[in-house]
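Q: what does this look like with adenosine-5'-monophosphate-propyl ester bound?
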Amino acid sequence: MNSLKALTDSYYNVDSLEKYIDLNRISQSDPESFWSTIAERNFSWRKKWDKVLDWNKEESTVKWFEGAKLNITENCIDRHLASKGDKTAIIWESNDPTEAAQHISYKELSIRVNKMANVLKNNGAKKGDRICIYLPMIPELSVALLACARIGAIHSVVFAGFSAAAVASRINDADCKMVITSDGSYRGAKKLNLKSIVDEALENCPIVETVLVANRTNLDVEMKAGRDRWLEKELSYAEETCEAEEMDAEDPLFVLYTSGSTGKPKGMVHTTAGYMVYTAFSFKNVFQYKDGDIYWCTADIGWITGHSYILYGPLLNGATTIIFEGVPSYPDYGRFWEIIEKYKVNQFYTAPTAIRALANQDIDFVNKHDLSSLKVLGSVGEPINEEAWHWYNDNIGKKKAPIVDTWWQTETGGIMISPIPFVTPTKPTFATLPLPGIQPALMDEEGKEIQGNSTAGRLCIKFPWPSMARTVYGDHQRYIDTYFSAYKGMYFTGDGALRDEVGYYRITGRVDDVVIVSGHNLGTAPIENAINEHPAVAESAIIGFPHDIKGNALAGFIILKDETRNPENLQKEINNLISSSIGPIAKLDRIHFVSGLPKTRSGKIMRRILRKVSSNEMENLGDTSTLLDPSIVDEIIEKVKEVL
Ligand code: PRX
């Protein structure tokens, strides 16, 4: 058995099962030495920490590396300049395959980030300010995040598919003074006018003083005098160097919104040092990235996967990371495979929804391309079903590239449970084992930890890890209520999981009212709120049901006030309402107009029944005797059968 000391030098890269077992043991018996060793050896600090971990269980506050001073961009960029200045940091691939790609070296990235940082400062941004970023997947998006981090401003990226109302609520929640956007965006054959969405949002955001607009599509947009500025023009006179702001370890790096099961989205706050240490460490190990490899994650930077594993994790490791502006189906369903061949991608990280959609196409789209460069395949965002797992393994990895089924969340900041390729034997549909430093637990409904293997329960994490979200922006009580109240002193993930006979974890899905649709986390309550605003609607209940491609799709059970309306028109109007209040991703696949909902005597909707009926499990509805009106179930079954 290796001692902590003996492992120290090679700590960072877990490249054998023996080492995994040792590190896992050490990280649990002495987490502080474990993380401080990793932090000390692999990053550049302006000042080291005074205390590794300060954990106040009563108040649910966690601080890592307190007292340390740093700037994450010095770790992502500056420290690589001497040895890797000319190495490509970012390869940008356009939506349009005929448009030239950009190969941005670390040196060039440094200049672009510094210039953008100066633009932010010239426009009044300073340390601690929140800046909303609403951009398509163009290089300016990654440059904007890093520029915020350079000056200590807190970025709040909003996925550029969200509606004006969703953008406005996120801007207002975080009090953003500045917005960075573009005139428009390309998504496959579509051209979207992002600036007009921002303009609409800003009608309800009086605090925003400045909007910086990148030119991507040459759209004719309205520029509001005194507020809106073209980014290119601002950049043209910005200086090329900008001293990095000195940040405390626990200074917020960013806010990123995630849906909750109730109410408005939660702005998860991630802080500087812990996020840096954990995303770098997990990227290195989960992808076994070696110098010279080309890494590609197909997520959007608007989601946590993009933050941690397109941008920060790869750059912290001096990697080459691909940013792809387009979609898997444009100009045809071979686009992903074409890009892998074009750049000889070594690690490829995508979502089960994309895998399922691509597996449904002619296999020639795959077989036309040389995919032999692939060493590791990743999956993230939702459970990967067995069929998709095998298709990915057989046709893309040719059974030679291990699949890392990575389980994690916006809240966890980094990958928590995942195989380490070439170290952990994989098993279809299993995320397998926790990374070193992560202590999962399965809990029963009485709040007791379930010991032993071959069991199932609710997934919690017992001990803090460096990249955990520290709070919900502006609402620490909501953070406590959502994550630390169900099981005292433990982080509750909201997911159910099972542990097999050897201790491998398989995530079975959400146990709350969040539905993962095409890998996107959607709370049902905000969708219901949107629908209930329709004048013809009295009440609604939204649930998720299994869908071949999307993993889950949404169904709405709606009671009408006005039953004289044409149902088809109503369905369209309801989906349009959802689209404009949240975004097209939250649209309902099925809408059932019903005369009642299955409610308990205390008025609670038994969504379990709606879920089972929608999943065609009519025979297995469980106890319905506590319902106020059990006869409503028959009506619901009839309505659902009409569309099955
Ligand atoms: O239910 C789990 C599911 O996605 C949720 C987190 O969503 P989000 O915060 O948007 O982050 C997605 C990207 C990290 C989880 O609570 N999920 C994520 N990865 C997996 C997964 N479910 C099963 N298997 C996974 N590998």
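The chain has a mean pLDDT of 95. The pocket of adenosine-5'-monophosphate-propyl ester is lined by residues 258, 304-305, 380-383, 405-410, 431, 493-495, 507, 510, 516, 521 (CB under 6 Å).
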